[in-house]
């Protein structure tokens, strides 16, 4: 009996360091995450991009020499992914900047002679005449537009310009860190994936490991649907722009495609094109572009995107739609990809619960 009590004491005393170790580990992990909290966003973006492109990276690595796989292969693939993601985005920014400069030059030239209100403005029912009169009084005379700009608060405009500069610097910093983290994930992806799979299987069982695989599949489905929707919307609206004679139709098609990858963002491109057509008194063309653009984007956002995600992730139309919108509202831009993946995991868990609650054929009653 004394020997048994001694063993119990040893077990109790050996259990204390284990619990202390767990508390220490938790404190260290929390402190690490708190110190690195400013880098969580680039890490999340790097993880989303790496997971969604991992099958493509594996195929790319097969065509590279074996001796280049540790360093050169992930570097080359990072360059290709960066060009694929940032290339259309930078081109879209260039097109918008060039169009803004053209509008500014036209307004500067028109202000020298007075900016007359467009003919369609006075034809708007009920308020058209009042709007045309207000336009004429505000900027209709020569030089009035410059006077309006000069009356603007210079301090507020300076703060606005500083805010834009800080925003650009912040996003450039995020992009650079994301690329560096992507390189690390591509370089050590096999090792990290195997270690994570063994750890999850050992700690939580095969069910949680399967859930992680389902989440990765749902994440890839979200990214792929985003790309397909952007290409389809850009191509469709590019044809529409060309048919109605929109200046720089190809450039605006790229802008529309880039913005259409995000829910509801493509409407900004449609609105801008319609505004440019209205300024040129092309009312019918603006109406056609508005109607076609709303139809194309609405169909893509509400039907094509959820359909593509649902076919590959097992989500229904409503689940994919609510996951994207809810993720965007909760987590911001990255929530467009994470939201449907989380909802897909929730659907899997609910289906398992319902399946476990069903009576088995062997159960008698």
What this model shows, in words?
The structure is a single chain. By secondary structure, this protein is mainly alpha-helical. The protein is about 85% helix and about 0% strand. It has two domains: about 40-185, no CATH class; about 205-355. The longest helix has about 40 residues, at about 70-115. Residues about 1-15 have low confidence and may be disordered.
**Main sheet: strands, sense, barrel:** none
The portion of residues forming beta strands comes to under 5%
User: SSE order in H/E notation?
Assistant: HHHHHHHHHHHHH
User: Low-confidence runs (pLDDT<50, min 5 residues)?
Assistant: 1-16
Secondary structure class reads: mainly alpha
Determine the N-to-C terminus distance: 50 Å
Rg measurement, Å: 28 Å
Helices, by number, come to 13
Average pLDDT level:
80
Domains (count): 2
Based on Cα principal axes, name the global outline.
elongated
Portion of residues within helices: over 70%
The total beta strand count reads 0
Defining traits:
mainly alpha, 0% strand, 365 residues, 83% helix
Question: What's the short story on this structure?
Answer:
With 365 residues, the protein is mostly helical. It contains 13 helices and no strands. The N terminus is likely disordered.
Q: What's the SSE blueprint?
A:
Elements: H1 2-35, H2 40-62, H3 72-113, H4 128-139, H5 144-150, H6 154-187, H7 189-204, H8 206-244, H9 249-260, H10 266-279, H11 283-313, H12 317-331, H13 335-357
């Amino acid at each position: 009996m004394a020997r048994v009590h001694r063993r119990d004491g040893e077990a109790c005393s050996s259990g204390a360091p284990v619990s202390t170790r767990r508390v220490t580990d938790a404190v260290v992990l929390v402190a690490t995450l708190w110190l690195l909290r400013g880098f969580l966003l680039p890490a999340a973006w790097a993880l989303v991009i790496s997971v969604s492109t991992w099958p493509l990276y594996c195929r790319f690595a097969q065509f590279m020499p074996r001796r280049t796989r540790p360093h050169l292969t992930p570097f080359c693939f990072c360059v290709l992914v960066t060009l694929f993601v940032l290339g259309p985005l930078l081109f879209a920014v260039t097109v918008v900047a060039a169009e803004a400069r053209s509008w500014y030059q036209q307004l500067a030239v028109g202000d020298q002679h007075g900016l007359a209100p467009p003919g369609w403005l006075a034809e708007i029912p009920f308020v058209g005449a009042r709007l045309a009169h207000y336009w004429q009084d505000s900027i209709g005379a020569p030089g009035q537009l410059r006077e309006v700009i000069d009356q603007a608060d210079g301090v507020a405009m300076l703060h606005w310009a500083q805010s834009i500069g800080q925003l650009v610097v912040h996003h450039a910093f995020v992009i650079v860190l994301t690329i560096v983290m992507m390189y690390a994930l591509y370089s050590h992806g096999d090792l990290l994936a195997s270690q994570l799979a063994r750890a999850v299987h050992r700690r939580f069982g095969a069910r949680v490991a399967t859930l992680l695989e389902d989440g990765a599949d749902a994440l890839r489905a979200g990214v792929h649907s985003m790309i397909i929707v952007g290409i389809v919307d850009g191509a469709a609206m590019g044809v529409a722009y060309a048919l109605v004679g929109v200046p720089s139709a190809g450039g605006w098609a790229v802008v529309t495609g880039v913005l259409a990858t995000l829910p509801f963002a493509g409407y900004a491109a449609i609105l801008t094109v319609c505004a440019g057509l209205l300024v040129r008194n092309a009312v019918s063309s603006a109406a056609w572009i508005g109607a076609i653009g709303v139809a194309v984007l609405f169909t893509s956002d509400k039907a094509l995107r959820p359909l593509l995600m649902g076919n590959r992730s097992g989500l229904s139309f409503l689940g994919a739609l609510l996951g994207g919108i809810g993720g965007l509202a909760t987590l911001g831009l990255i929530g467009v990809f994470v939201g449907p993946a989380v909802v897909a995991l929730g659907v899997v868990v609910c289906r398992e619960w319902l399946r476990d609650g069903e009576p088995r054929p062997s159960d008698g009653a």
